[in-house]
Write a structure and sequence with these properties.
DUF4935 domain-containing protein, about 15% strand, alpha/beta, DUF4935
């Protein structure tokens, strides 16, 4: 667990995957995006619920398969099918899961009495006028217990459950989000908070306001870059991913330099444009890196001199690899994706 890194906790409804024979966790597109920018945590009761959902689903499919006439027509051993160990299969899926995550547990022994009190009073996360909601209550207290291990830090909790949202509504250390897009909006909001804005003003010596921050992305060094437009100047500010400390900034018109590179009309222009851009690669957005890659694929004034030291070094610094056939013709460009 990394101090200062964004921490995301997941409810069952966002990662359930009972029907998959390939993966333990579901919602993989979202999980992959989260894993690029944060540490992922799953309550142990959610893991247990996913296992049980899968067990019921696969056991049902096995029974249906046994009743299917094609099972006999194909000469498949009924005994072998019955012996298939569903529990072991699921555990192997869990062990082989490629998306990194940590399991969090409820250690607070007093939580049971607190859960009982919430159930009696029908308070969130229990359903209104009902005592249904033990699992959600267990998750709720697991998250609160986890917060004790990370004092002064906040977490994001991903759920679509309305009563869990209500339970965390007054906890300023837990931000409930429904998906990665929702998370992105709130994560960027950190850079618009008063504390960070004061840091920007002190570093750049200009009256920067929250509304001046128009975009936030991850750069090639996996640090944050803020695009700040004050009306009188446009800044790109690199911020350390973990500590949120300002590393550096520039007010150079990088988009103009990228456009000049794309339009290079000679080898000399390519070298000159690379010389300009090389000092600002840490401020480039993924879209701009993509434009550079596209230009390299179609502009002969670029790809023809790829073997030149400065050109190769420039593309290496952008984590771009250009593939050239033996006859020297460019065949394609591989881009390191940075989209969040």
């Amino acid at each position: 667990m990394t101090i200062g890194a964004e921490k995301i906790i997941f409810d069952t409804n966002t990662i359930r995957c009972e029907g998959s024979s390939d993966y333990f966790l579901g919602g993989r597109d979202e999980l992959e995006r989260f894993s690029k920018v944060a540490e992922l945590f799953i309550p142990d009761i959610v893991i247990d619920e996913i296992k049980e959902q899968k067990r019921r689903h696969l056991a049902g499919k096995r029974d249906s398969f046994l009743e299917n006439i094609f099972h006999k027509l194909r000469g498949i051993s009924e005994e072998d099918t019955k012996k298939f160990n569903v529990v072991d299969f699921i555990e192997n899926q869990r062990t082989m899961e490629s998306i990194p995550y940590s399991v969090i547990t409820l250690k607070d022994q007093s939580a049971l009495s607190k859960i009982r009190a919430l159930a009696v009073l029908n308070k969130a996360p229990f359903e209104k006028n009902s005592d249904k909601g033990f699992k959600d209550a267990y998750i709720y207290f697991t998250v609160l217990d986890f917060l004790k291990d990370i004092p002064d830090e906040r977490v994001f909790f991903v759920t679509k459950d309305g009563r869990l949202k209500e339970a965390f509504a007054l906890n300023d250390r837990v931000r409930v989000v429904e998906d990665f897009e929702d998370f992105e909006r709130y994560r960027a909001s950190y850079f618009r908070e008063e504390y960070f804005i004061r840091k920007l003003q002190g570093e750049i010596d200009e009256d920067i306001r929250p509304e001046h921050i128009s975009s936030v992305w991850l750069n090639i060094n996996s640090n944050w870059v803020l695009l700040v437009d004050t009306g009188s100047a446009v800044y790109r500010i690199e911020v350390d991913f973990t500590t949120k400390e300002i590393i550096g900034y520039t007010d150079q018109s990088i988009e103009v330099a990228v456009e000049a590179f794309k339009q290079s009309r000679s080898f000399a222009e390519t070298h000159e444009n690379i010389g300009t851009l090389q000092s600002y690669v840490q401020y480039l957005s993924n879209g701009e890196i993509g434009d550079i890659a596209d230009a390299a694929a179609i502009n002969s004034q670029i790809y023809s001199i790829y073997e030149d030291d400065d050109v190769r070094a420039f593309f290496d610094s952008l984590k771009l690899g250009i593939f050239i056939e033996k006859d020297g013709l460019l065949t394609g460009v591989r881009v390191r994706k940075l989209d969040l």
